[in-house]
Structure formats: C-alpha cells, structure tokens
Amino acid sequence: MRALCTLLFALSGLSLAGCASSSRGFWPSGQEWRDSAVEAAQSPASWAPALGAAIVVAADADHRLSDSAREDPRLFDDGDDAQEFGDRGQNALGLLALGTAWYTGSVEPDGAGNGPLRRTGALILAHGTAAGVGEGLKSAVGRERPDDSGDRSFPSGHATQAFSYAGIAARNLEDAGASTGARWAWNIGLYTTASAVAWSRVEAGKHHPSDVLAGAALGSFVGQWLYGAFLDRPEPGTALSVVPVDEGAMVFVQTRF
After folding, report:
1. pLDDT digits (tens, 9 = 90+) for 152-185
2. Would the pTM of this model clear 0.90, i.e. be above it?
3. How would you write 133-160 as a 3-class SS string?
4. 114 φ, ψ to 5°?
5. Of the candidates 167, 175, 168, 179, the residue with the CA atom closest to the CA atom of residue 105
6. Torsions phi, psi of 99, nearest 5?
7. What is the Cα–Cα distance from 96 to 102, expressed in whole angstroms?
8. How far apart are CA 101 and CA 23, in angstroms?
9. Domain ranges of the chain
C-alpha cells in the first residue's frame, strides 16, 4: 500500500495540472474552502462517529470494549484474520475510490469541469491530508495500543482512510448519475466495508473503539471537504429567461436536477 501511495503522490501534480477546464480554476477560493468544510462537518458520516467516540469515552467503556473484542472476537476468527482483512479492505476501498473517480470523470457531460484527472488529484490530496493529520494526531496524543505494541493508537489510520475512500466513492457514483436504488446499494456496501475495516482494528488489538470512531470521523470529514472544495457541483435550481420576438416575447424555463 505504501508503494501505491508513493506513486499516487508522485502523480498528484500531473493530475491537478490537467484540471484547468474546471470552472473553479486550479485552486479553490477561500469561500469554496469554507463552504465545503461546513458541508462536510454537517454530514452524518462526519459528526455521527465523532459523537459515538465521545459517548464511548464518557461512558468509560473504551478499554472494556477493546479487551472484550480482542479476547473474544466475533466478526473475525482471530487477531491475524482481523489484521489481514483490515489491510485488504482498506486497499480495496482505495481502488474503488480511484476507479469511480476515473469512471465518473469520463461520463460527465462536456464542460462539467470534473474530469478524471481532477477527480484523481482531489482524491490524492484527500488521502494525503487525512494521512498527514492522522499521523500528526498519533504523535501528539501518544496513546498506547491495546496490545502494547506502540503508542500510536489514536486515531486509527485504517479507519481514517477507509471512510475517506468510502465517502469519495459514494460521491463519485452520485455525480455519475446513478439511480437512487443503485446509490443506496453501493453506499450500504461501501460503508459496511469501511465499518468492518475499522472494527477489524479493534479485534486485532491495535485500536480502542474510540480510536476507530475518531478515525472514521476524520476520514469522512477530510474526504468530503477536499473533494467538495475542488469539484464543481451545480446546485439544483430553475432559471427563467425572456427573449423579445416580433409581436411579443418567448419565455424559457431551464431546470437542473
């Protein structure tokens, strides 16, 4: 996975350099950054896991739940099985996010400004930002892992990236014009997989429940924030225009769905 990440970062400049067609320009404005941050913070995918982490900590249930999951795993056979699933699940979600970025960028109408290169560039920046913030918090907090294997427990990097990828893939499919039923099915699959990746880290003994919940909140927020700031997204609305003609006028009503 590290080799894949290195390759993606090496391509980030090329990805964004080919994005001049976006009506937002090369770099988002301050207002676009702020609007996207507010929208991302208001998403249940961001605030719900953060609230869950706060409740677990307030109830003093973190260590108890962590010990129980590690000693008596329910979702996976053992810690090694959980570790393997977490690694593979995170990588699979990353590939889905990348694949949907290229697919959606290719099928969008001409002039939308969100081609595959720009979507890939936004994905790379979201990945790098989430990873950087997560690593910074790990160093600053220095929380011991449940299995005593180090002091980088908070937040979970696997959960951070899994939920960032899941949110980005869901956004790509929505922008591609998938039907409501298809989006629901995909979203259930994406977020179920991301949740399983997060919980695998608890059963593997690498994280407490609050670590993975905080990671899920961080990944969801950063992914939606960066993606929303860099990509155009026309708001639904109706435009009315009047064109004078001989002996009257013609009225045009244009609606975006």
Report:
1. 999 999 999 999 999 999 999 999 888 999 999 9
2. no
3. HHHHHHHHHCCCCCCCCCCCCCCCHHHH
4. -115, 60
5. 175
6. -65, -40
7. 10
8. 18
9. 2-256
